[in-house]
Design a protein that fits this description.
Structural class: alpha/beta
Mean pLDDT: 83
Number of domains: 1
Strand content: 5-15%
CATH superfamily: HUPs
Helix content: 40-55%
Largest sheet: 5 strands, parallel
CATH architecture: 3-Layer(aba) Sandwich
Distance between the termini: 95 Å
Order of helices and strands: HEHEHEHEHEH
Number of strands: 5
Number of helices: 6
Length: 233
């Protein structure tokens, strides 16, 4: 019996067109992310709603813009939410939800139209805890809307909408309004350090939320009611 040290095999190799297709499949997601990720994350989808929610951490100008949205949009209530400020050199912290409520009052929003929802846990999962607090504040006042709009900052929009939709399931539709500060310069996001930081952070956060659900579960199901049938606070 002869020993054979080499055996001939048939090896399939892509053609130039095949290599081009493979390269396209690899590069397409990256190119989409590079050129369209900010627009994707900052999507605005406004729904006809009687309740407007605003994340208080977006800043004074953002709260003022939310106040203008409230006046123009025909809403009945506006809910402010958000945890404590992160002051590394000061032991005193302020509530974003409360500061947003005060700013709305200064903007001319009646106090009986403002609902301040302060989350219990502000150390982690802040967006989720803010959504839980907002849902609880509405339920405490007998307001179980079928549709809400969420007002938040630019690239945070898509992830916030996803989280609020999970918390308010199963019967509440969540619209989203993405607001960009006036100091955001026009042009590609990678030319601005602030925008680049937001895009990279929110990209990771969005896919983490989609794939892993951040280890959270939504609230227990409840029957949504119309605000028209609820008693005003």
């Amino acid at each position: 019996m002869a020993f054979c040290l080499i055996r001939r095999r048939t090896v399939l190799c892509p053609t130039l067109l095949g290599w081009a297709c493979l390269l396209g499949l690899v590069c397409a997601p990256f190119l989409f992310w590079w050129f369209d990720c900010e627009a994707f994350l900052s999507r605005t989808h406004r729904l006809p709603a009687e309740v407007l929610m605003v994340e208080g951490w977006i800043g004074k100008e953002g709260i003022q813009a939310a106040g203008a949205e409230f006046k123009q949009g025909g809403y009945r209530f506006i809910v402010t939410t958000g945890g404590l400020t992160n002051n590394r050199w000061d032991s005193h912290q302020w509530s974003y939800a409360e500061m947003a409520g005060e700013e709305l009052i200064r903007a001319g929003i009646p106090t009986d139209k403002i609902i301040v929802a302060f989350p219990k846990n502000t150390e982690g999962q802040r967006t989720f805890e803010s959504a839980v607090a907002a849902d609880g504040a509405l339920q405490a006042k007998g307001l179980l809307p079928t549709t809400i709009n969420l007002f938040t900052l630019n690239a945070h929009a898509r992830r916030s909408r996803l989280i609020f939709s999970k918390v308010f399931q199963p019967g509440t539709r969540v619209g989203i309004i993405s607001w960009a500060p006036p100091n955001y310069k026009a042009g590609p996001w990678w030319r601005s350090s602030d925008r680049a930081e937001d895009v990279i952070k929110e990209t990771a956060g969005y896919f983490f939320e989609v794939l892993l659900n951040s280890g959270r579960t939504s609230n227990s199901p409840r029957e949504p009611l119309s605000l028209n049938s609820a008693q005003p606070p």
